[in-house]
């Protein structure tokens, strides 16, 4: 009887230790031991068997518990990273919109073409992230009465500079929307390029030739005078379309 009691005690202890899932197995072993004879030997075997089963069950439980915990952690990490990606993307799109608006507004008025492009961009961003926070931030940018570079910087400073640099073409296109890139717009683009150059140490002005740069070059295709594309490093032949990339030394400053 002592054996049975011990067996019960051990089995209980094991069962308590291994938890819910093991109770069935250990409990069955104890019941078997008690019912069959109360014999220490039988109970002992049953207990041994029960313990073996319980141990097996325990390692299985712990294994799957570990797995459950780590997969839950992985899920949470993935969710955090996904949210971070979304937040970064939204920040990048705010920067894109702010740059467009900054360039378009730099001559003080929004031309109809500029407004149409800003509206389009606004809707495009909102359709991608249709939530009230995004809408109100876009409207906040759109309603900024004085979008100077200091205001713009708030929207671009936390965004990867290579991403900002990828918006330079859009900036040029925005400036050209109303058919005429004004000096104020050119100045704004210059500030953006200068900012990127200062921030990164990479030369975003390297491809930039001042408007008063003179290109004295003849087209190799047709012999016509090549035309400088402002704020780009290209000279294009207006007649046959042949173009070449320029380095600053290919150009000379025009004396005014
Ligand atoms: Zn030509």
Question: Tags for this entry?
Answer:
single chain; 256 residues; mainly alpha; two-stranded antiparallel sheet; 5 strands; 66% helix; disordered N terminus; disordered C terminus; binds zinc ion
Blueprint of the fold:
Layout: H1 2-18, H2 20-36, H3 40-105, H4 112-128, H5 132-142, H6 149-156, H7 161-166, H8 168-176, H9 183-200, E1 213-214, E2 227-228, E3 234-236, E4 243-245, E5 252-253
The structure holds zinc ion.
Offer a quick outline of the entry.
With 256 residues, the protein is mostly helical.
Report on this structure.
There is one protein chain. This protein has 256 residues and is mainly alpha-helical. It has 3 domains: 2-75, no CATH class; 84-200, no CATH class; 213-253, no CATH class. Helix content is 66%, strand content 5%. The strands form 2 sheets. A 3-stranded antiparallel beta sheet has the order 2-3-4, with no helix packed on it. It binds zinc ion. Zinc ion binds next to loops.
């Amino acid at each position: 009887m002592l054996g049975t009691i011990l067996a019960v005690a051990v089995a209980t202890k094991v069962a308590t230790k291994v938890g819910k899932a093991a109770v069935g197995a250990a409990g069955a072993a104890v019941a078997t031991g008690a019912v069959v004879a109360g014999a220490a030997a039988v109970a002992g075997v049953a207990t041994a068997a029960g313990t073996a089963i319980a141990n097996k069950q325990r390692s299985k439980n712990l294994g799957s518990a570990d797995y459950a915990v780590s997969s839950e952690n992985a899920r949470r990490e993935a969710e955090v990273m996904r949210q971070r990606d979304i937040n970064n993307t939204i920040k990048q799109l705010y920067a894109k919109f702010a740059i467009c608006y900054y360039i378009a507004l730099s001559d003080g008025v929004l031309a109809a073409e500029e407004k149409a492009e800003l509206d389009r961009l606004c809707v495009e961003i909102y359709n991608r992230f249709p939530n009230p926070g995004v809408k109100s931030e876009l409207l906040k940018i759109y309603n900024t009465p004085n979008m100077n570079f200091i205001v713009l910087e708030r929207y671009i400073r936390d965004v990867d500079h290579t991403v900002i640099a990828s918006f330079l073409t859009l900036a040029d296109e925005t400036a050209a929307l109303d058919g005429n890139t004004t000096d104020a717009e050119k100045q704004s683009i210059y500030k953006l390029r200068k900012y990127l150059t200062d921030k990164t140490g990479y030369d975003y002005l390297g491809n930039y030739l001042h408007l008063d740069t003179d290109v004295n070059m003849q087209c190799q295709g047709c012999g016509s005078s090549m035309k400088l594309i402002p704020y780009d490093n290209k000279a294009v032949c207006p007649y046959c379309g042949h173009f070449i990339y320029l380095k600053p030394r290919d150009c000379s400053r025009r004396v005014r």
